[in-house]
Amino acid sequence: MAVLKALEEFVSRHDQRKLIPLLGTSDGFMTPEELDIMREMD
Fold first, then answer.
1. Which residues, 6+ apart, have CB-to-CB distance to 30 below 8 Å?
2. Can you tell me the distance from the alpha carbon of 6 to that of 29, in angstroms, rounded to the nearest whole number?
3. Which among 2, 6, 15, 35 would be 20 to 30 A from 28, CA to CA?
4. What is the rounded distance in angstroms from the CA atom of residue 35 to the CA atom of residue 31?
5. CA 36 → CA 12, 30, 31, 32, 42, distances in Å?
6. Three-state secondary structure along 2-40?
7. ∠ Cα 34 37 41 (to 5°)
8. What is the pLDDT of residue 25?
């Protein structure tokens, strides 16, 4: 069970590293203020 968990965490971290270069490259991200407004609507 521990080996499976370790493999899952490794794969998760590896996938995250591939996404890091993409962060901040989209014009579609919301500002913190826009997120606050959306949260208040719920």
1. 38
2. 32
3. 15
4. 6
5. 28, 10, 9, 6, 10
6. HHHHHHHHHHHHHHHHHHHHHCCCCCCCCCHHHHHHHHH
7. 140
8. 64
In the block, which residue shows the tokens 């899952």?
8
Per the structure block, which two tokens stand in for 22? 């993409």
Between CA 13 and CA 1 the distance in angstroms is 19
pTM score, whole prediction:
0.39
Residue 28 tokens, joined: 């579609």
Q: Cα(first)–Cα(last) distance of the chain, in Å?
A: 39
